[in-house]
């Protein structure tokens, strides 16, 4: 008779054999396998420890983290169970390996003698014998196994938009299908009906209904309790909102607001404005609605379908409106208005506004990474909350910020335009949580819901910090990567921040911060210098070894590209725009050599703008001195050096010019050339295919896909030694193709 202890030991040893795990995931249901492994871990005694292979022992915590490694990439393993070893190694090794502290100094690496990294390294040795092909991460991935996420919601195979109801249900828009989960990970419904990708979701306050809008403008109202479609609208391009009792919904289409009764499934009225409507807000009792345009707000009586009041507001690109939760006051842009009189009660600083649930305070943001909290009665500034973000922040006009209160007014949640989330405790004014790696985040019943860039939704506890710590890296979202010529170094650009990485170790070796936005970085042929192209019309040449600026060249107008010749003796910079408009007077003065002086007679002339051709190509020596300024005559797309120091410039209209860089003479001009192709000297043995959710590694010889990686990182580049680099959000990924390529 086998004892209970012997049964547990046998199951644990099987759980630590990679061949057994791979077979189970390949043949059995993923959910059932995970449930089985979780049950094994839960049944372990407190002081459990067993030697699974010679000199490698595991305890309960190691086994718990092992199961978490399966869950962290649930979608990938469901689709491709052969990726289980790669997933467990990439997360398991960096969980408790001593090397992890180099990449994440603030994180305390578990110091137990029993380590998960020992188990996955033993697996790696076995896989090397089989020449197993996989993608190895040379630095920790953004999420650690001991981060405090509670559940993983699977089936997330697309762009994720996420929202939560007060019933702690989660709705995620995955392509054109809505998934509704409980926060314990149980999938309730899949709502199918949209033909295009879904771009917006919103719950009713009571959580009984859900409204969705797709990219094609189609809006659908759903019964979230039954998973049924209630009604559809087409060509809705702006916004919609539920009344607070969840019985009515307002849907805006251009100048019209349609009021729809959910219970009777009929349209109540149409409210028509003279100008396009930007945002709407319901009164607490659901009998009135405020519609805001660019420069005015209209108050409507919904039951009568008539205007009650109209008042003018400060004209803003972003027009947010928020009705007081308990009285007849409206916050719109930077003013608080009386709904009854239409008069301004007081003004505050802020574009995006949110009342506290009790109406005593109002929070505002002003696109400066600060949240201001005001007294809701008199508009007195109470305090300012600052994020940990970089002080310089540029955002485009379509990028929106948001601020809102938790249901009990104990926390203020601030979501930046790059979807980074900050949460403050209202009483202590302390920052509770900054979700560095989330793509989308919401709060529901003391839990935070995050949709990460790897197409997996995770539910986190709100106790203390969700994330153990941040990896060494950028504070802002990465925009671009540039690899050195020998492939040993990688430059990553995040607005005003530049970091240089060692591709062999995955460790950043130096970083630079500038006052100007960085557009691009170009490496010298000796891999020691970089040319940094920034918005100040200058190109800075930096020595990465000494971490200092060697010299700066002033191009004169916005440069877009820089490149060294083969022996690094000359640097070329280009700007795309050929023609710049200047006043006729300034052109006349510059041509005639006249120094502008004041006009003693006070005579004014009509200002005329004349297009002037500029030098778009400039060649500099290795000390930063201008050698030649060349005019191509069209929009210059790129330039290339030949081995004999000839320069080829390529324009948008297909024309190509070849220049002698020493003399600046144009040697050849081809007026029409449709394309310029550069073929690889030798065919690669593999092909990287970047899909929407993952990366595929295809073997050219075997004509099949041999490895998968999730998430689908951006700007994927292949360096020597089979190094693959890319980025997602604020994180740099450095991977290595292993398996005898």
From TrEMBL:
It comes from Uabimicrobium amorphum. SMART domains: WD40. Keywords: Repeat, WD repeat. Residues 175-238 form the Anaphase-promoting complex subunit 4-like WD40 domain. InterPro entries: Apc4-like_WD40_dom (IPR024977), Quinoprotein_ADH-like_sf (IPR011047), WD40/YVTN_repeat-like_dom_sf (IPR015943), WD40_repeat_CS (IPR019775), WD40_repeat_dom_sf (IPR036322), WD40_rpt (IPR001680). PROSITE patterns: WD_REPEATS_1, WD_REPEATS_2, WD_REPEATS_REGION. WD repeats lie at residues 191-232, 353-384, 629-669. This is Anaphase-promoting complex subunit 4-like WD40 domain-containing protein. The keyword Repeat applies.
């Amino acid at each position: 008779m086998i004892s209970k202890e012997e049964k547990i030991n046998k199951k644990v040893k099987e759980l630590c054999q990679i061949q057994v795990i791979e077979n189970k995931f390949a043949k059995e249901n993923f959910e059932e396998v995970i449930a089985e492994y979780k049950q094994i871990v839960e049944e372990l005694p407190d002081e459990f420890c067993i030697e699974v292979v010679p000199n490698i022992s595991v305890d309960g915590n190691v086994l718990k983290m092992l199961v978490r490694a399966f869950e962290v990439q649930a979608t990938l393993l469901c689709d491709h169970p052969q990726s289980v070893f790669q997933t467990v190694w990439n997360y398991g090794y960096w969980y408790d390996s001593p090397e992890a502290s180099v990449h994440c100094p603030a994180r305390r690496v578990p110091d137990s003698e029993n380590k998960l990294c020992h188990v996955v390294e033993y697996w790696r040795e076995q896989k090397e014998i089989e020449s197993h092909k996989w993608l190895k991460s040379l630095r920790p991935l953004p999420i650690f196994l001991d981060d405090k996420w509670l559940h993983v919601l699977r089936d997330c195979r697309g762009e994720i938009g996420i929202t939560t109801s007060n019933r702690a249900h989660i709705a995620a828009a995955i392509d054109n299908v809505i998934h509704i989960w409980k926060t314990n990970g149980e999938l309730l419904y899949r709502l199918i009906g949209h033909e295009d990708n879904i771009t917006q979701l919103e719950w009713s306050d009571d959580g009984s209904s859900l409204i969705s809008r797709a990219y094609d403008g189609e809006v659908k109202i759903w019964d979230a309790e039954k998973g049924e479609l209630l009604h559809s609208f087409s060509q809705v391009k702006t916004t919609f909102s539920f009344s607070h009792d969840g019985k009515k919904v307002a849907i805006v289409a251009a100048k019209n607001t349609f009021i729809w009764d959910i219970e009777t499934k009929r349209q109540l009225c149409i409210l028509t404005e003279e100008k396009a409507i930007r945002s709407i807000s319901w009164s607490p009792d659901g009998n009135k609605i405020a519609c805001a345009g660019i420069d005015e707000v209209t108050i409507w009586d919904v039951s009568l379908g008539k205007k009650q009041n109209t008042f003018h507001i400060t004209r803003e690109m972003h027009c947010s409106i928020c009705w007081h939760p308990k009285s007849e006051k409206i916050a719109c842009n930077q003013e608080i208005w009386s709904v009854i009189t239409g008069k301004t009660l007081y003004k505050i600083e802020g574009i995006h506004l949110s009342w506290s649930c009790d109406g005593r305070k109002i929070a505002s943001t002003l696109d400066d990474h600060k949240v201001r909290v005001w007294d809701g009665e008199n508009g007195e500034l109470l305090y300012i909350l600052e994020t940990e973000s970089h002080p310089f922040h540029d955002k485009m006009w379509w990028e929106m910020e948001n601020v809102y209160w938790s249901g009990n007014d104990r926390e203020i949640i601030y979501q930046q335009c790059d979807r980074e989330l900050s949460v403050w405790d209202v009483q202590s004014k302390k920052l509770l949580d900054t979700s560095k790696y989330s793509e989308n985040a919401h709060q529901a019943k003391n839990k935070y819901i995050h949709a990460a860039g790897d197409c997996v939704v995770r539910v986190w506890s709100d106790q203390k910090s969700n994330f153990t710590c941040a990896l060494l890296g950028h504070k802002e979202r990465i925009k671009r990567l540039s690899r050195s010529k020998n492939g040993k170094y990688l430059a990553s650009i995040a607005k005003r921040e530049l970091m240089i990485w060692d591709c062999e170790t995955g460790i950043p070796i130096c970083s630079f911060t500038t006052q100007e936005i960085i557009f691009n970085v170009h490496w010298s042929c000796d891999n020691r210098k970089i040319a940094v192209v920034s918005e100040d019309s200058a190109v800075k040449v930096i020595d990465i070894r000494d971490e200092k600026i060697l010299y700066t060249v002033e191009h004169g107008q916005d440069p877009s590209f820089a490149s060294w010749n083969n022996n690094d003796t000359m640097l070329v910079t280009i700007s795309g725009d050929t023609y710049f408009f200047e006043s006729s007077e300034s052109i006349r003065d510059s041509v005639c050599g006249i120094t502008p002086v004041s006009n003693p007679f006070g005579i004014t002339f009509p200002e005329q703008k004349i297009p002037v051709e500029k030098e778009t190509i400039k060649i500099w020596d290795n000390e930063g001195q201008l050698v030649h300024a060349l005019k191509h005559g069209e929009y210059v797309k790129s330039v290339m050096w030949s081995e004999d120091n000839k320069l080829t410039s390529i324009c948008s209209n297909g024309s190509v010019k070849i220049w002698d860089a020493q003399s600046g003479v144009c040697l050849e001009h081809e007026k029409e050339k449709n394309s310029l192709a550069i073929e690889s000297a030798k065919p690669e043995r593999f092909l990287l295919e970047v899909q929407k959710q993952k990366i595929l590694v295809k073997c050219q010889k075997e004509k099949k896909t041999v490895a998968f990686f999730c998430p689908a990182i951006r700007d994927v580049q292949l360096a020597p030694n089979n190094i693959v680099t890319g980025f997602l959000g604020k994180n740099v990924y450095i991977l290595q193709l292993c398996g005898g390529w």
